[in-house]
Design a protein that fits this description.
The structure is a homodimer.
Chain A lengths: L7 E7 L2 E14 L4 E5 L5 E2 L6 H4 L1 H5 L2 H4 L4 H7 L7 H13 L17 H9 L12 H14 L11 H14 L6 E3 L5 E3 L1 E2 H13 L11 H16 L1 H4 L5 H9 L4 E5 L3 E6 L4 E7 L4 H14 L8 H7 E5 L5 E7 L6
Antiparallel strand pairs in A: 1-2, 1-12, 2-3, 2-10, 4-7, 5-6, 8-9, 9-10, 11-12
Helix pairs in contact in A: 4-7, 4-10, 5-7, 9-10, 13-14
């Protein structure tokens, strides 16, 4: 990313003053790779972070590992999740690993405090430390371990040279239509392969059209079935994808089958707009989730997947900011350029 | 603020990729209003938010109200604070109000959860709600109430037309050398008067030079004494200005008398560089404290108030970002343009 300025996508007003702005790049593409519209340069290469978890889960499903382990749509939703470590997430992840004969120390995601306030308070109350199941990526790692067990790889499954990560890399290249130019190590220790925003949006359009009448440019065979199952799992279990109160969960519910979405750290968001066969990918330059959440809500509304009067839309993209006495002293809103 | 792009002041790298940037405006000025150096436009008007609490405290001291109420330097530090609602802050604020015959309901700052994790946990453990003393601005409001009681104003002391706020407005105009063009209501319900970054930096240079040999362009008389007492109070009680672990507290300690600093919400930071008679004011466009803390640390180092090998500097402005297994997968650093 160079330092030329991307457009302002989100504004924060305080009284009559424009107090903060969030700049970024956003791309809407079709499954054939056509850029329908873009703000900033679609060729901009980013780290997709957790927004690409459905790509990272493709080897799990395509290889037959998911079926061999008897995984349900709940497991697949959790594999695509950045969850908040609430009981529904940690309990499912724990049962999942036990079901394939593995346990917490087999994970390589590391430990962080759960983002769920209840879970954090509960741990603190009994002076207990979190474990790797609380990591927001533990579902992805359960998926990695399931695929890896099926494929017979060694235990260090997050090594970038490990056959599992090489399979993820290959899948990334195939679904984006790009050669991966590099990677970084993610917060959960897995390699995160760099992609262009145009390539990421195209990949998401292919997820949107997998197994539908939008054929020819989308996935075929095992990939089409796998992509469809993953998208359907995310749509069916919004709370497993993130958690109560979180943007992904609220947006998937509000889109009601028209689209599913996934956030990534440092200002990334994608949408799989099944109804229109489109993919959306965006990155806020400063990495602030306040910006990426507002921008994705605006683009979902722009493409018919969310109503602007929906409370989920207004909370994220057209929202008063209240002060400590309930006075609306500010307003967060998507920039005019994202509204139609 | 228009939407022309300000320079990148802070970079966040992940592996070999520039992952996030924080743009902003920064100004270094003398007490005569000379701009020593600037990134972006010194005429940019911002809401200074809590960075101007020492200006808002001038009427308290200049009027004689502080002395009449027997306030110590601890009280004055708390009046300039955005504290985290830990016991040292709430206990002092509570004693302060009782000492002038007032109590919690007289405050108009409103309630928010304390930012101190221990205080939050303690409240939650006994299922108690926070009160207005936990508000990060409660010290400022104790100062407002003390000044107001001395001046004989009515109880709604945060009304923008209230004589106390008019006194704050006049002080703001005098110390910045500007006519206030507007205001917004702050999170704590007090009016927050808009100033240019150049004006704010100039005001801070005047605080830096109050009562020193840098005379002629700085404050005189009661204002000089008041400004000096406020700066000395902040320097003497860093933990009261913010709290353990917070950037302001750590920076004031590390600067060891060479400078004091104060943050403001939405990406604002100021520094009063006593040793060199300079003032610094900056605003990060996206409002992220990660950006404003890195930028102020870099400017303090640039102007001799902080060493680049100091752990406080490296933590804020040249810091590895560790993942959940302790691997340094990223790096936060002030942009080259801020380093000399």
């Amino acid at each position: 990313m160079n330092q030329s300025a991307n457009p302002v996508l989100v504004e924060v007003w305080r009284g009559a003053m424009l107090d903060c702005v969030h700049r970024g790049t956003a791309v809407v593409a079709t499954a054939s790779g056509e850029v329908v519209e873009a703000w900033g340069d679609p060729a901009r290469v980013i780290l997709p972070r957790s927004s690409c978890k459905m790509i990272q889960a493709l080897p799990l499903v395509e290889s037959g590992a998911a079926d061999a382990a008897g995984l349900t749509s709940e497991h697949l939703a959790l594999a695509c999740a950045s969850h908040q470590g609430a009981v529904p997430h940690t309990a499912l992840a724990s049962r999942w690993l036990a079901g394939i004969g593995l346990s917490e120390p087999d994970l390589r995601c590391g430990v962080h405090q759960p983002n769920d306030p209840e879970a954090r308070h509960e741990l603190r109350g009994r002076r207990a430390a979190p474990d790797q199941f609380h990591n927001n990526c533990s579902g992805k790692h359960c998926g990695f371990l399931t695929a890896n067990r099926h494929l017979g790889g060694g235990p260090e499954y997050v090594d970038p040279d490990h056959p599992l990560q090489q399979a993820v890399r290959l899948a990334t290249e195939e679904v984006t239509g790009e050669t991966v130019s590099g990677f970084a190590i993610d917060g959960c220790s897995a390699p995160n392969f760099a992609v262009s925003l145009g390539g990421l949006a195209t990949a998401m359009a292919r997820f949107a059209t997998a197994g539908t009448s939008f054929t020819g440019v989308s996935f075929t065979g095992a990939r089409a079935g796998a992509a469809r199952r993953l998208v359907e799992a995310m749509a069916a279990h919004p709370v497993l994808v993130a958690g109560e109160g979180r943007a992904c969960t609220n947006l998937i519910r509000a889109c009601a089958g028209r689209a599913v979405v996934k956030t990534g750290a440092a200002g990334v968001f994608i949408a799989i707009v099944a109804e229109r066969g489109l993919g959306i990918a965006l990155k806020i330059d400063d990495g602030n989730a306040r910006g990426s959440e507002a921008a994705i809500a605006a683009l979902l509304a722009r493409h018919g997947a969310l109503e602007r009067h929906d409370p989920v839309y207004t909370a994220l993209a057209d929202s008063p900011i209240l002060n400590c006495r309930g006075f609306a002293h500010g307003h967060l809103r998507a920039a005019e350029t994202l509204l139609d």
